Amino acid sequence: MLPWRRALGALAAALLMTGALTLTPAAHAAPDASSASSSGWNDYNCKPSAAHPRPVVLVHGTFGNSVDNWLVLAPYLVRRGYCVYSLDYGQLPGVPFFNGLGPIDKSAEQLDAFVDKVLASTGAAKADLVGHSQGGMMPRHYLKFLGGAAKVNALIGLAPDNHGTTLLGLTKLLPYFPGIEDLLTTKTPSLADQVAGSPFLTKLNAGGDTVPGVRYTVIATKYDEVVTPYRTQFLEGPNVRNVTVQDLCPVDLSEHVAIGILDRVAHHEVANALDPQHATPSTCLS
Fold first, then answer.
1. Cis status, amide bond into 250, omega within 30 of 0
2. Which neighbouring-strand residues pair with 215?
């Protein structure tokens, strides 16, 4: 294969991995929302307790959906006494099951409507948001431009692409392949939005990473192969805590997908960020 073909193939594969979820062998059909509610989340009869007064909204990553991205974390939080909800966003016409592909500003509008629904159902004044990959970055548009800061107490990002990604430098090849950027913009707009230096990210990060009144936590892994360099995930500003899981457990080998889907150390840090007054140390045994 010619070198440019290998490079293009690698670029396509890397872009397709951005925020992707791990699919289980049985995941061949669109997920059934009842499977989530029967597991204790997306239960609109849930009322927040005094110990956990805010509902938790889970925001999946690119190519993810409201069920498969959260098969471990959602029940984990439900067992801890939280009212937990997850949404699907960024759907494209004719593309079932795989979401998070539409323009990110439009996805933020879907999040806005979903948070309003959750707050109306629970009677809570504010929600906490937990997102993986794009799902940890997209809510920042909601907070900054759609009035979400008045409705959100905390945003917790698992491997969020807050400043985009170079995909190990492969995105620098885009200008050399005419038509590829147009394809990403017209067919999968969210991928184009997530490339470092995109107009979307330039606007999002102009004037600072954070907005007043919201607590931010970023949980990253140094083995992230999708959002690279991994430190670009971190935020700067007041009320920000940036965490690398290997600082808590040196033998943690989680990469981009695993930190959102399976990593117990990361999930324990999510619990700490949701309830910092009762936080306990995260270790390899968490």
1. no
2. 154
